[in-house]
Amino acid sequence: xxxxxxxxxxxxxxxxxxxxxxxxxxxxxxxxxxxxxxxxxxxxxxxxxxxxxxxxxxxxxxxxxxxxxxxxxxxxxxxxxxxxxxxxxxxxxxxxxxxxxxxxxxxxxxxxxxxxxxxxxxxxxxxxxxxxxxxxxxxxxxxxxxxxxxxxxxxxxxxxxxxxxxxxxxxxxxxxxxxxxxxxxxxxxxxxxxxxxxxxxxxxxxxxxxxxxxxxxxxxxxxxxxxxxxxxxxxxxxxxxxxxxxxxxxxxxxxxxxxxxxxxxxxxxxxxxxxxxxxxxxxxxxxxxxxxxxxxxxxxxxxxxxxxxxxxxxxxxxxxxxxxxxxxxxxxxxxxxxxx
Length: 340
Prior knowledge:
The protein is an alpha/beta fold. The protein is 40% helix and 25% strand. It has eleven helices and 14 strands. The protein is elongated.
């Protein structure tokens, strides 16, 4: 549906998008995550044709967004973070005007406008001026505008930003319903929202794609493997020694949260990437006649995964920059010494 290949966008010496590649499949809700300044909005603007890339390609259903913009845009509906509304128009006037701009046949405009107003539940506000609408209703009008023409893909940039809890709940449910008929790409800073709504998550940091997978599987991508919480009826030193002797185990540490088992030590055990360590832990304890009183798989939150992945990328950037500055400084010192 969408193919992004080696996408680069730079402003002077600043690289906003750095050789980013990704594939968006049909019929899913995608979450697009990243810290402020990571390049999310720039990437979305390139995907929708609002901004040209420095290099690389974006293909929408096989159409290059730069070479065939009209064909590519027919497949997309876009809701920016601030909906592009004319404040002195009513929602009905706004949508009729947008239908004309999108090139919808004259005979179909009224019907399509009424349909998208029904889907976004704004019929009661049809004749009220946009400037008198609440933030939540403005978001709905913007979403209705994106739905005109029944595009295959909806790109939503922070659709719940600035809304109250009730409005957030309503917009989330609307997005969930839209995901049944459209491919949705959702940018958000609310990680619980992405985890609840999205089938797949893309995490971007410093303009690079650092991870793409389902919210459930991202834990193993970031942490390097499965994590278990175990209760062992033994001293901590013995339990740790036994667990660390298992080849598939990468890390063992004390567990300070959650359930407790009397007379036992509670530990967190992390396996190596791609390994399922449950059987190995069970058989090790059985072979050494060490009672295993409890074992539970730990699901890491999307927030923890996000922080780990983006902090790793930031640390790598900082380390690289420090090394470059040190090398430049040494070069300058060597040049100065040679000229004396």
